[in-house]
Write a structure and sequence with these properties.
This protein is an alpha+beta fold and 168 residues long. 43% of the residues lie in helices and 20% in strands. It folds into 2 domains: 77 residues, no CATH class; 82 residues, no CATH class. The protein has 4 helices and 9 strands. The radius of gyration is 20 Å and the shape is elongated.
């Protein structure tokens, strides 16, 4: 396998790693981390005396994609709901029938941190396998946004597709 094949494979792995995440920072982090990791790994591998640039690119790309995706995912979660349309919030999770949601959890609304902050009530997010509770929290709406749309299932093309919460 030549260096170009290794770099292409590494980039594909980075892109796929980003697709698993929950938002644009996860995806961007995985892609950027994969590319930078592949470049750094190729340089280190080539300069190590054994001219192992291809192996270094592969290892660096995978490690960079995982690290970048993890950091981006953390940013997505810190930012809370980041999608601006149903199209952006639609996931690849499609099921023949909607899995039942667990009972809602009780929560205490904290003091509003700023006058522009909006309280987002807690909700269950579906990751493709199970529901995960996202506690209620304050968010400052993105510019030009007026309302938060809670996560929901939408019937499309013979299956139910999961749509994450988003601002409109």
């Amino acid at each position: 396998m030549n260096n170009k094949s290794i770099l292409a494979l590494t980039t594909a792995v980075a892109l796929c790693a980003g697709c698993v995440g929950t938002g644009p920072n996860t995806e961007n982090g995985a892609v950027t981390g994969g590319v930078l990791g592949a470049l750094a790994g190729a340089i280190i591998g080539n300069n190590s005396g054994g001219h192992n640039g291809a192996a270094g690119a592969l290892i660096g790309g995978i490690a960079g994609a995982v690290a970048g995706g993890t950091i981006g995912n953390s940013v997505d979660h810190q930012n809370g709901t980041i999608y601006r349309s149903e199209y952006e919030a639609t996931t690849n999770v499609a099921v023949p029938s909607v899995p039942p949601e667990p009972p809602s959890q009780s929560e205490l609304q904290t003091a509003q941190p700023t006058p522009s902050a909006v309280w987002i009530y807690g909700f269950y997010d579906f990751d493709g396998y199970r529901y995960n509770w996202v506690p209620g929290h304050w968010e400052i709406p993105p510019p030009s946004s007026v309302a938060f749309v809670r996560p929901h299932w939408r019937y499309r093309g013979g299956a139910y597709v999961y749509v994450r919460g988003y601002w409109r």
